[in-house]
Structure formats: C-alpha cells, structure tokens
Amino acid sequence: MERRVLLAFLLSLLVLLVYQSLVVPPAAPPADTARTGVATPTESAPAGVADPPLSRDGAAVATAPAATPEANPQNEIAPLVADTEPRDIVVESENVHAVFRNRGASPVHWELKGDLDQETGRRIDLVPQELPPDELPPFSLVFEDPELTVRAAQALYRPNTTVVSLADRSETLGFEFSDSSGFRVNKEYEFEPAGRGYLVRFRASAFLGDMRLSPVIEWGPALGGVESSSTGMAYREGPRGLIFGRLLGAEGLEEEGITRPTSSDVAARPSYRGQIGFVGVDNHYFVAVALAGRQEAEVTFRHVPLPPLTPDGPSRELMAFGLQLPGDGIDLPFFIGPKEFETLELVDPALIRSIDFGWLSWLVVPLHRSLTWIHEYVANWGWAIIILTVLVNIIIFPLRHKSVVSMRKMQEVQPEMKAIQERYAHLKTTDPEKQKMNQEIMALYRDRGVNPASGCLPMLLTFPILFAFFSLLRSAVEIRGEPWVGWITDLSLEDPLYITPIIMGASMVLQQKMTPTQADPMQQKIMMLMPVVFTFMFVWAPSGLVLYWLTSNVIGILQTVVTNRVIGPPKTRTVRPPAERRVNPPAERRVKKSGRAGGPGRKAKAQ
User: Tens digits of per-residue pLDDT, 525-543?
Assistant: First the structure.
C-alpha cells in the first residue's frame, strides 16, 4: 500500500510538472480593434483648434473664434482653458517613478523603482510602450459621442503643477480643459503614501454645457512588465482580466469570488456586471485594478494582440478594460504595483485574492506570513526558505517517524506475506479459495501489530504542505530578483550553474535507498528512475523551490538515520516450508487447539 501511495504521489507530481512545462495558453482570437461607438485618438482632431493667447501668468484666456469664409461649426471650437504646449509632469514616490502627459492627462510611464526586468535590467514599466496609435492610455474617458472622446484624448490639459514629490502626506496632480463648445473635463490624481506610491485615487468630471456626462474609464492595453522567461516550472502568467465580487449570472448574483478571464474567455463573454470589489488586469507578479468597493458596476474586457518589441522577441498578448460606474462623477482608488502580500493587505485585505495561490490558499497564506516574518530577522529570502523548511519538518516529524516505523514493520513481515501469497499463487483471482489468502495476510498483520494505513496516512498528510510550498514559491513576488548566496542571484529563476538541482537529485537517490520498501527488485529499479526525472525537471525550476526541496530531502535523510537508531536494525524472520508448518504447527496454535478440545483428559493426552 505504501508503495502504491508513493507511486501515486510521484505520478501526480509528475503530471503537475509536465502540465506546467508543456501546457501553453490557448491561442489568441483574431484581433478586433473595432470598438462600437468609441472614437480613437487617430481620428483627425477638430480643425481650427488653435493655441489661445496667454495671460501674464501663462494661463490660457478665452478668445472669440475668428470668422472664416464658409466656416464649419466644428471649426469654430476653440480651447478656453488649456496648456500652451505639450509637456510631461513627473511624479516621484518611494517606489514609483511616473510620467504624466498633459495631452490627454494620462500616465505614459509607471516605473517601479524596486523591480527590474530580469533580462534587460531596466525598471519594470507597467504602462506598455510602443502601442498602436488607436489605443488609449490609462485613465482615458470614453463618451457616447465619439467626437467628444477624440477631443478629450487629444486636448492639452492645463496641469496644476510640473512636479509631484510624494513623502509622508497625500499629493494631488490636477488637470483641466474646456473649449468654446461648452465641453469641460477635469481630471485629478491623488497619490496616497499609505499605498507606498502604488495607490492613486482618480477623480474625473465632464460636462457639455450644463449637462453632466457619464464617461467610461478606459484603461488601454495592460499590463506592462510582462516577462518572457516562461519555461518549465518557471512559467509566468501573462496579462489577463481580474474580477473580485458577486457577478450577475443566469440565476442572479453568484457567490463572491475571483474570476480571471483569459483571451478565449473574453472572446465568448467580454462584459461582466455585478457587485464588484476590485477589477482590472494582472500578470504573474503585477496588477492594475480599480477598487470599486463592491458597488454595482460593469466592466468590458478586450484582448489586444501586439507584435513583439524586437524581431526575435515574444509576441505581446495584452488585455484592455473599460469600467462603467453608476452616477455621473468618478471617484475611485486604483492600485498599480507588485503583488506584495503586506502591501496588498494594507491597501485592502480582499486584494490579497489577486495573488493566484490556487486551491491551497488556506495553507499558503499562513506559510507566506511565516516566511515574511522569518525574513524580517535574517534579511535573506534564501535563508528564510531554509529556516521555514526546517520548522515545518520539525512540526511534521512525528508523522514522518510513524510512517518510517510502519514501513519498517511492513518490511519485516514481507517474507511471511510472500510465503502466504506463494501458497495461493496457483489459484485464479476469481477462485473463492483466493479470499483465504487475504484473511491470512490480515491475520498476519494483526499478530505482528502492523497497520498498513499507518504508513500511508502520515505520508498523505505531508502532501498538502509540499504543494503549498510549490504554490508559494512560484507566485511570491517577494523572492523575485532576490539573491541567496554566490551564483544564485535570483530565487525566482533557475540555477544558472545547475548545482542545486544535481545535489537535490543525489539526495533523492540516497533518501530512497534509506527508506524501507517492500517492492521487488524490478520495481525498485523503476523507482530509482524518479530521481533522474525529478532532477531533469527541476533544472528549470525556480531556485527557491529547488532550495526548499533540497533542504527537505536533507532533513528527511537525517530523520531516517535518527529513526533507524531509535527502532534498531530490522528483525529477520525465518519462514519454514509449508510442509514443515503442517507437521509442526506453531505452539500458539497447538495451545489454542488443545483449549478448544475441552476436558482435562484431552489436555493430558496432548501433553
């Protein structure tokens, strides 16, 4: 039974690793750049829009439109409140370097100071670059009238400052624009230090004369910072939709939960409505979401396939989304940054759900908290992984000890069990006499105090911890770019010299030889292939995961040595031939038989 459980576990893990290595995201549907009722910035800007004269303080002042022959009404539209020339406004915080452009009043860069691209060494920019001209930047406003959308995207908004430096208090960057048609737009970005620079509250209002407009917040292709290192177990999720809340289904509001629409999902269902907690786009390590606060809202996703930035680079499969909120005004916080556990929890505890820990999140979360707590003392994520692995193995030591003791007992009764099986080997499986074999084996277990399940259950209880560690080390952005010692400079990437995977494979071979087994020689040879397979697959695994597995193997070897010394060497039992057992039955069976015979005369005769 232990052999079957171990084999089932190894095969299950093998399937998991092969899935991570071979399964690729579904093919992207054909690009559909047409958006009904939404104009794009590439459409011609209204003719006749000229820069207004300036007052002494540099502000634009209203001027009457010049009369021209055969004037078109659209030619008479002139800016009233606007900037005089294109300019960039820089926002600096502890962790973010952002650049806003006054044309459209939207960010064109959102660079993370503490996160570098693992290939180029440059800062991760969460606003994708080199986009087609018809794609809108983040925080764009889309109106029912396409012409208003174009004007809002092409207008030179007047900023209230040229530089924003975020320290220990909130800072606000404001933009305003109006023209002679009565079209007015105000945008305001309030940066909050509580979010370490990743949190910004976006406010916007738009009017056409006395009528207040209700635009859609359009976030163009997202998310930047996509990494191409997606081989084997180091697979990186690309940009995909992210919704947390109660969505409206066929039978009403569904249960609150996470939905992650991929490109194929968006092709079948682009729009989602319901009570939304947060919504946006994420990739493996980063996220850009609007914190809607569980209010009624509607979001529409759009798959945006783009060519690679370099001729030999990977293609970019991005995702855009538009958010429609109830009411006329827009006042909404956005989080744009890495999926750091503590930062997400500080901004909104529900935002932790954006980290894809899988079905074992109930176990991964406390492991993550423990790993972070240890890191505060050792200041090295590699040593934190080793220390946490040691602590976890100390906790499960009784389970492993009981499993080894049970397998030792099973190993000791193996010769007797094989002798029983050989006596019934000539019978077919359907023969009723074959049941006696199972009865004798169970009687043997009972006489020797062996419980087959006691070897399986402790081992099964350790499996969730193993998979939880796998999910934790695969998804935690905290170990991304973090070194351990020497040649391992990034725990989220594979070992560049393949030293730790080779040592890990050798430790698996040694541990397997030390573990008691009831397998026959042929099965043992087959099982010895598993370390080879695991070594080959862990060559491309994140170094942090290999470090955990290696540490766990070393602790397992030490524990086996301790257990073997405690319980002593295995007891060898000599199995007599079947004929001898029939002539000289064991003493216990003779005593039981004489006791069942009844009177003292029979006992004396037996003696």
Answer: 666 777 888 888 888 888 8
Q: Residue 20: in which H helix or E strand, if any? A: helix 2-22
Same domain, 422 and 543: no
Report, in this order, helix, strand and coil percent for the chain, each rounded to 5.
40, 25, 35
pLDDT tens-digit map of 378-394: 999 999 999 999 998 88
- In this structure, are residues 325 and 292 in contact, taking their beta carbons and an 8 Å threshold? yes
Task: Please state, in angstroms and rounded to a whole number, the distance separating the CA atoms of residues 54 and 178.
Answer: 15
DSSP β-ladder status, 88-92 and 163-165: parallel
Burial class (CB in 10 A: 0-12, 13-18, 19+), 216: buried
pLDDT: which is higher, 401 or 333: 333
What pTM, to 2 d.p., does this model score?
0.75
Q: Band of the pLDDT at 410, cuts 50, 70, 90?
A: confident
Q: What is the 3-state secondary structure (H, E, C) of 343-360?
A: HHHHHCHHHHHHCCCHHH
The residues, any chain, with a CB within 8 Å of residue 374's CB and separated by 6 or more, are 384, 387, 388
CA 480 → CA 125, 320, 488, 549, distances in Å?
16, 26, 12, 18
Domain assignment of residue 541, given as a range: 2-20+364-413+450-567
Number of domains in the chain: 3
Band (pLDDT 50/70/90 cuts) for residue 430 is confident
Q: Is the dihedral of CA 529, 533, 534, 535 positive or negative?
A: positive
Categorize the per-residue pLDDT at 33 as very low, low, confident or very high, splitting at 50, 70 and 90: very low
Strand-pair category, 199-208 with 183-191: antiparallel
Sheet holding 96-101, edge to edge: 123-125, 106-116, 96-101, 88-92, 163-165
The answer to whether position 594 is within a domain reads no
Query: Helical H runs in 248-380?
Result: 263-268, 341-347, 361-378
Amino acid code (one letter) for 345: E
Ramachandran quadrant class, 104 (left: phi over 0; alpha: psi -120 to 50; beta: rest): left
The closest of 51, 41, 48, 45 to 72, measured between CA atoms, is 48
Are 342 and 368 in the same domain? Answer: no
Residue 37 has pLDDT above 60, yes or no: no
C-alpha–C-alpha distance, residues 534 and 536, integer Å: 5
242 closest CA partner among 220, 261, 229, 223: 261
Let me know whether 210 and 346 are in one domain. Answer: yes
Any bridge partners for residue 297, and if so which? 274
CB within 8 Å of 42: residues ≥ 6 apart: 133, 134
Among residues 356, 384, 399, the one where a domain terminates is: 356
